[in-house]
Amino acid sequence: MTIITFVLPWYGPDLPGGAEAEARRTIQHLQAAGVPVEVVTTCTRDLYADWGKNYHQPGTSEINGVVVHRFPVEPRNRQVFDQINIRLMNNLTVGADDDRVFMEQMIRSPQLTEFVREQADRRLYVLMPYMFSTTYNGVLEAPERALMIPCLHDESYARLPIYQEMFAKARLLVFHTYSEKALAEQLYPVADGQVRTVLGEGVDMDQEADADRFRRTYGLDGPFVLYAGRREPGKNTPLLIDYWSRYWLHEGQKRGARLVLLGSGEISIPPATAEGVLDLGFVSAQDKIDAYAAASVFWFAFGQ
Fold this sequence. Notes:
- This protein is an alpha/beta fold.
- Helices cover about 35% and strands about 20% of the residues.
- It contains ten helices and twelve strands.
- The strands form two sheets. Strands 3-4-2-1-5-6-7-8 form an eight-stranded mixed β-sheet, sandwiched between helices.
- A hairpin with a 2-residue loop joins β3 and β4 (about 65-70).
- α2 (about 80-90) packs across α3 (about 100-105), α5 (about 135-140) packs across α6 and α8 (about 210-220) packs across α10.
């Protein structure tokens, strides 16, 4: 019996992030449908943790009925990684060997990589997203058993030479949109025998939204732009704040418009435009759904 096995940098029932939610919900639906599915991941907590420190205990456990194998991470040179990552986040060039240093000092879990290699004959690996070393090492160790969901964006990371090898070796690439597939074909030539397809992803349709409830709860009576997601340079939220500040000072203030922010991460709001921004941080799932219904415009973030 072949076990569908998701290889992820971190996994949990309530982790923030789009790729995290997609993986979690896909795994849950496969499990509910009776498909043998397991998770291979590290002991680090999430995107915002120190990736060189273990948060969870290593070993095998169950989360909502899904078998999860956790492997420890080893210490890394975070300073070197951050120096390269900051340049990439700001679309600056990096040195000739920096891409390999970037990968080597990202998430170091040799036991996870060894498991992927040794278990390849009995597993079909689903690896996502493309940028993380868990995906890179997993694809290289078991290329014929690798189905990669890259969650690819047009960003500086995607142009690092080290990803050329990974994209060439994966047996199957699954994309969310045709434009994502077109970007992959622009950046990475199709390898012999490789399959590339657009499948999209599941969407929950059984949710009810109440726009008036959101407006009442948070005291909003005018038009507003909604941003929901991580607040960081990789999502271009500083650019969003810059654009919004200019608009609000020249037009939005007269219209009574506001920018509503949902999600995690630090962000700097200019004092002159603070009245035009409502930063709610994390809210409940229902409040987020209500916010989508209430918003005049939804600002979608592109980035890793």
